[in-house]
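Supplementary Note 3. Input sequence used for the single-chain structure prediction.
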Amino acid sequence: QVQLRESGGGLAQAGDSLRLSCVASGRTGSPYNMGWFRQAPGKEREFVGAISWSGLNSYYADSVLGRFTISRDNAKNTVYLQMNSLKPEDTAVYYCAAARIPSATPYQYATQYASWGQGTQVTVSS
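The predicted structure, written as discrete structure tokens, is reproduced below.
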């Protein structure tokens, strides 16, 4: 099992940028497909974006496409979510997740992930 810890959340104004980090520890011998999800108050958890184990492929929700970018540094066991042009509707708790099976195709469904972080709050004011 791999443990995940997110950081980098906080308060931002509309139009600002934030970068979230997710550090993996534990069984990190092989890179995992990673994903970012978010959950706003009163709403279900939703997919934000994902990256393949190699970092060569990524996939994003339409709501963040062109504004958010996922990257990874496998040497540091860290995945990043760069969030630009933030909007109030981006306000949510952001979670990173690790899938058990590596793939060249990023995973977009929560059921495809085996490990989850505790989440980091992002609040965007207008």
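Residues 10 and 28 are 27 Å apart (CA to CA). The chain has no helices and eleven strands.
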